[in-house]
Every structure is written in structure tokens, then in C-alpha cells.
Design brief:
Layout (H helix, E strand, L loop, with lengths): L10 H4 L3 H12 L5 H7 L5 H5 L2 E2 L7 E2 L13 H35 L11 H10 L9 H17 L13 H9 L7 H11 L8 H31 L5 E5 L9 E6 L3 H10 L3 H9 L5 E6 H11 L3 E3 L4 H6 L5 E4 L8 H5 L5 E4 L10 E2 L7 H15 L15 E5 L3 H9 L7 H9 L4 E5 L11 H12 L2 E5 L1 H10 L4 H7 L2 H10 L4 E3 L6 H14 L11 E5 L5 H12 L3 E4 L9 H15 L3 E3 L3 H19 L12 H6 L1
Parallel strand pairs: 4-5, 4-7, 5-6, 7-8, 8-9, 11-12, 11-14, 12-13, 14-15, 15-16
Antiparallel strand pairs: 1-2, 3-10
Length: about 650
């Protein structure tokens, strides 16, 4: 018996943008193994794992559920096994994003105590605003005094054992009532993750609905807890994002500059690298080495963090991390945590690039480890830049090929920045947006988030869906690698509204001066999308809960456990979520029905699976129309210029 092997895909079938296609071809020519070629070796992926019916939780197994073996050794059926596996994925995703938030809260505490080295509170107005929201006394106190109390409050969000998270108070009142009614108000973030692992241990929780409700509870601890803390503290320490121009794609790398690429998710080091790369002594050192300067560029969510605050260009998103090395023009790639492939050192070995890991919880075989000391942050950053400069002489011109592709972009749309753009300094508000939605000029708001996945053509779903939505007058909010996909496509500029947006959305974008696709930050900044939705509720006219506003979330090409947690906290918040491919739950019809149908009765939203962009667009419009119908606004209102008689009658 022979096993038929499918032919390898062509580069153009793997990636959407020309730069990626060129580098996939170059990797093949250079005999370099990348995620795309490795995907070919994983064609026959485990069907049991894909359906979620493989259980490895205890050592009586592993057990696989089949028609002939409907229960594992312990007696767990498919429903229990699938629910436990999903809960563990949510716990993993929550732990990743929330630990990011914890590290930043600890840094804020050290800064407040005078132990923060080169870090300072960069945005004191945001610090004081957040203190007021959390009822921390700030009047008449120094910034460090306020910051210390706020940092301790945030750290308590991780360790709290009995009280619900304080950050939940930022959600609409009605939504908090839903969470309380369903018994999913999360306590401390650490407690939720530990309890998730405990419940899913062999011999504990076997009720699939009970397990899945805790998955939503754990996810809320991330979306309204750990991730929200991460965004808030980043703004306080590094500055609140505001619109900034830059460029994206592999063409931002310099042919005659020292190229340093940062990749991962922690902004503390990349913030200092942004400063060090512009330091006069570093630039002089680069010129002495024969380079024309230093180019710092980002991959993945670290890219988004330094983009929205410094305008540092983006080299690419998740599946371009290896391709950046294949250019042969990168002196150093600095990695920390999350989404950093263990293959990077082996790809780099074909060129002259040095891979440097900096987080003590994330080491990679073949990478140089340079522990990052936050008390000497700038010195550490300069040391790394110096090492990259020293490596410049080792370039191999015959192996260098930088694709010319690069696109302009505007990013940095925090909620405060959007309010300012809509109403100005003295009338900053979401009122113009709400009015545009009610008048039908904007049909609704869609958040597109998540990673890339080599199972599909990279960026195709994201970009096809984005173009279809803005053509039909939907304002799109983006974070993470989905935002980078639009950046490479040239959709993050105000000019894109003139070229591609429908007439209503174009009118709003022209009047305000914003792109039709708003880049809101890294994937941890998905909490900003919920914050924007909450502002729409607070502004009035679109209902009193997140489940009422015409808004949908989409994860087109997701791949990470973090995306599972994100999807769960969006649905629990009352926002429908479209998945480009399903969770690993097909082995349980009951779990599938619960997540895709039954939770609508609990939260007013559910999951939906649409495996191509066109069907996703149609389904999104169906969901938006349903909400518009319930609000009584699903008709375009005529705009009337009031005369004096009309005004006196108002």
C-alpha cells in the first residue's frame, strides 16, 4: 500500500504579497527549510487532534475516542474530553497575554519606587486618568506615589482570591449583570488559570457546559484583566499611541544599513532599542563599520508596539519572521516571548544573522541568550546594537536580496486618539461615529484580529475580507498581524478611503481624516477594541450593551491559543466572532452546538465558522443587519440641512 503525497505548493499559492512570494522562492533556492516547506511534511495531520478527541491528561492514556471506543479508560466521553482540551487552550492563551501584563505592572512598580533604571512615566495625564477610573487618590500626590498605588492595584488583579476583578468595572453595567447572572465573574487572573487546569485534571470536572463556562470566565480575566492592564501600563510608561506615519513590508530593510529586527511581544526592551538605534554614538559606530546608518524594524506584535509609539517600520507579520532572515540582510534578530519560532537559529545559520533571545523564560537552542536587565535597559539595548554593528562585516552579498515591496501606513489609533480625531480637543467623543452608524453612512464596525496560518494563503483571507467590508461602508478596527497584513496592502492610509471605501464610509473618513482601517496596536491591544465598543455604548443611541451595537469580531487566519482566549472573551462580552477555521471541537456535537449556538442565549453572541472571505463578508452583514433591525436603524436616513424655521422647531 502506498501513500499518495500531494505536490508542494507554489510560492504564489502560499503568500499574498510579492515580498513574501519572492523570499519563499529564495528560501527554496537557498535550500533553507521554512514553515511553508515544513507544512508540506505535515499534510496528514492527526484527525483525532483536529477533532479534539485525543486525551493525554493522565497516564492511563493517551485515549482516542472512536465509534468502537466511545469513552476513555477513565470513562470520559468525547464531550468531556473536547471541553477539557478547549479549556486548557483558553488557560494557555490567557496566561500568555496576562503574564505580559504582569511584567509591565511590575515594571511600573519599580519605576514608582525609583528602581526603574532608564524607564520613566511618559504619560502622566493617562496615569492620573486611570487612577481616577480605579478610584486611586491622585490629587495633590506625586506621579510616583500614584503609580505605586495603581501598580499594586493591578498586581492584585493577578493574586485576588475572592473579589471580582476591578477592571470589570470598565465594562457596561448591563454586561456586568450578564456575567454575574451566568456565574462567570472572574476573580484573580492567576486563580482563574490555576482553576482551569484543576478543573480539567483527570477525575475533576466532567460536565462539558460547566467546563466551557469556566473557559469564558478565564478568558474574561484576560480580555478585561491582564490584557487591559498591559495596554494601560504600556501607555503610562511608553506613551499613549497617536496617529503616526511609517512603512511596512520587507522592503523597509536597508541594503547599506545595519539591520536589527525585533520580534516577540514584550515592549520594554524594544522601547529601549528604538532609542538606542537613534543614538549619535551608535550611528557613528555604524558609519565607522562601513554602514550608512541603522535600520530598526519589527516583526509581529513587538513591531506594532514600537510602530504605534515611534513610527518604527514593520518588516512583516508572523509568517514573515523566517523570510526576513532569508533576505540575507539582517545582522541581528532580537526575540523575547510568544510567536517566535524555534526554527529561527537554523534558518539564520544559512546566512550571517545572529539570533539573540532576551527573556529568561524563553530560551531557544542555537540562539545567543543575552539576559535583559531592566535596571540597565538602555545599556543592554546599546550592547545589542553594537553586536549587530560588529556583525555587519560578515554579510554575504551573494546571498542578499531585499524585495523592494514597502507600503505607507498610518497607525496608532488608541481610543483617545479616535475620540480626538472625531471631535477635536474640546469635543472629543464617539458621537460622530454613533451618528454615522445610526444614519447608515457606516453600516457597522468590525474588529479583525489574529495571526497568520500556513494552512491558508498568507494574508489572502484578511485582505479580501477587509476590502469587501470597507467597500460596503464598514469601519474596520485591527490589531496584531491582521493589521500588518492591511499595512502591507496599503489599506492603512487615508487615501485608501478615496480608492476603496463605500460612499458613506468615504465621506466620514474624508471629513475626519482617518483611514477606513484603523490600526489599534498589538494583539494584546484587542482590549482597545472592546474599549472602543464600550465608548459607543456610553455615547448612546446604539443600545445599552455590547450585544446591541452593530459590531462583529473576526479571526480569519488565527493559529494561537491566545486567539482561542480572545474569541471567548469577545463572545462573553456580547460580540459575535467569525472564525476562519474552527476550533478543535468537531469530535463533540454538543460542544460545537454550545459554542456556535447555545451561548447566544447566555451572552447575546456566539461563534461562527466561515472558511472563506466572501462567505464571511455575507455572514457579517447578516449579523450587522440583525442588530440594526433590533435598534430600528436599518434604513438610510436622509440628511437634511436645517434652516432657521427648522431650528426654532427643534
Amino acid at each position: 500500500m502506498t501513500t499518495e503525497t500531494k505536490p508542494a505548493k507554489k510560492a504564489g499559492d502560499r503568500a499574498w504579497d510579492a515580498a513574501s512570494v519572492a523570499m519563499v522562492n529564495k528560501a527554496t533556492a537557498d535550500c533553507v527549510d521554512t514553515c511553508f516547506s515544513r507544512m508540506d511534511t505535515q499534510q496528514n495531520q492527526c484527525a483525532f487532534g483536529r477533532q479534539g478527541i485525543c486525551c493525554r491528561i493522565c497516564y492511563m492514556g493517551p485515549c482516542r475516542i472512536t465509534a468502537k471506543a466511545p469513552r476513555g479508560v477513565c470513562g470520559a466521553d468525547a464531550d468531556t474530553i473536547v471541553a477539557r482540551n478547549l479549556l486548557r487552550e483558553v488557560a494557555g492563551g490567557t496566561a500568555a497575554h496576562s503574564d505580559h501584563g504582569r511584567h509591565l505592572a511590575l515594571l511600573l512598580k519599580r519605576v514608582a519606587e525609583g528602581k526603574g533604571g532608564d524607564y520613566r512615566i511618559k504619560d502622566e495625564p493617562v496615569l492620573r486618568q486611570e487612577a481616577r477610573w480605579y478610584k486611586v487618590e491622585e490629587a495633590g500626590r506625586s506621579a510616583n506615589e500614584v503609580a505605586l498605588d495603581l501598580a499594586n492595584l493591578f498586581l492584585n488583579e493577578f493574586s485576588s482570591q475572592e473579589e471580582p476583578l476591578r477592571t470589570l468595572a470598565l465594562a457596561p453595567v448591563k454586561r456586568r449583570g450578564v456575567w454575574e447572572k451566568e456565574g462567570i465573574l472572574p476573580q484573580g487572573i492567576d486563580r482563574m488559570c490555576v482553576e482551569a487546569l484543576h478543573r480539567s485534571t483527570m477525575g475533576v470536572d466532567h460536565d462539558y457546559e460547566h467546563l466551557l463556562k469556566h473557559a469564558f470566565r478565564t478568558a474574561l480575566a484576560d480580555g478585561w484583566g491582564g490584557s487591559r492592564v498591559a495596554s494601560i501600563v504600556s501607555d503610562i510608561l511608553f506613551g499613549s499611541p497617536s496617529p503616526v506615519r511609517s512603512e511596512a513590508n520587507l522592503g523597509v530593510l536597508g541594503a547599506r544599513t545595519v539591520n536589527v529586527v525585533v520580534h516577540g511581544h514584550e515592549p520594554a526592551l524594544s522601547e529601549m532599542l528604538a532609542i538606542a538605534s537613534q543614538d549619535a554614538d551608535m550611528l557613528a559606530q555604524a558609519r565607522a563599520a562601513g554602514a550608512e546608518g541603522i535600520t530598526l524594524a519589527g516583526i509581529c506584535c513587538t513591531a506594532n508596539e514600537i510602530l504605534i509609539r515611534h513610527g518604527i517600520p514593520i518588516a512583516g507579520n508572523f509568517l514573515q519572521q523566517e523570510l526576513a532572515l532569508v533576505t540575507g540582510a539582517v545582522e541581528m534578530m532580537v526575540v523575547d516571548v510568544q510567536c517566535c519560532m524555534p526554527s529561527l537559529p537554523s534558518v539564520a545559520a544559512a546566512y550571517h544573522t545572529e539570533i539573540v533571545s532576551t527573556s529568561d523564560i524563553a530560551k531557544t537552542i542555537g540562539a545567543t541568550h543575552a539576559a535583559f536587565d531592566e535596571e540597565k535597559a538602555l545599556a543592554c539595548a546599546k550592547d545589542l546594537i553594537s553586536r549587530a554593528i560588529a556583525n555587519y562585516k560578515n554579510r554575504q552579498p551573494g546571498k542578499m536580496s531585499i524585495p523592494p515591496a514597502r507600503s505607507p501606513l498610518v497607525a496608532g489609533f488608541s481610543v483617545e486618539a479616535i475620540k480626538y480625531m472625531l471631535g477635536g480637543r474640546y469635543r472629543a467623543s464617539f458621537r460622530p461615529l454613533n451618528d454615522a452608524v445610526m444614519q447608515g453612512r457606516i453600516h457597522g464596525v468590525v474588529g479583525i484580529v489574529g495571526c497568520n496560518n500556513p494552512k491558508t494563503r498568507v494574508d489572502e483571507y484578511i485582505n479580501t475580507l477587509t476590502r469587501e467590508l470597507i467597500k460596503r461602508n464598514v469601519l474596520v478596527l485591527k490589531t496584531g498581524c491582521a493589521a500588518i497584513a492591511s499595512a502591507k496592502e496599503g489599506m492603512l492610509t487615508p487615501e485608501a478611503a478615496l480608492e476603496a471605501a463605500g460612499p458613506g464610509l468615504r465621506e466620514v473618513c474624508e471629513a475626519v481624516g482617518i483611514p477606513p482601517v484603523l490600526h489599534m496596536g498589538s494583539c494584546v491591544d484587542n482590549s482597545r477594541i472592546l474599549e472602543a465598543a464600550t465608548e459607543m455604548v456610553k455615547e448612546g443611541g446604539l443600545g445599552d450593551d455590547l450585544s446591541m451595537i452593530p459590531a462583529v469580531g473576526v479571526a480569519p487566519e488565527w493559529m494561537s491559543e491566545k486567539a482561542v482566549a480572545i474569541g471567548c472573551y469577545f463572545v462573553a462580552s456580547g460580540v459575535d466572532v467569525i472564525l476562519g477555521h474552527p476550533f478543535h471541537i468537531a469530535g463533540s456535537a454538543k460542544v460545537t452546538q454550545f459554542l456556535n449556538e447555545d451561548v447566544r442565549g447566555l451572552f447575546g453572541a456566539s461563534f461562527h465558522v466561515c472558511e472563506d472571505a466572501r462567505s464571511a463578508a455575507e455572514h457579517i452583514f447578516k449579523l450587522l443587519d440583525q442588530r440594526r433591525e433590533k435598534l430600528g436603524i436599518n434604513q438610510k436616513m436622509e440628511r437634511k440641512l436645517f434652516d432657521m424655521k427648522d431650528r426654532r422647531g427643534v
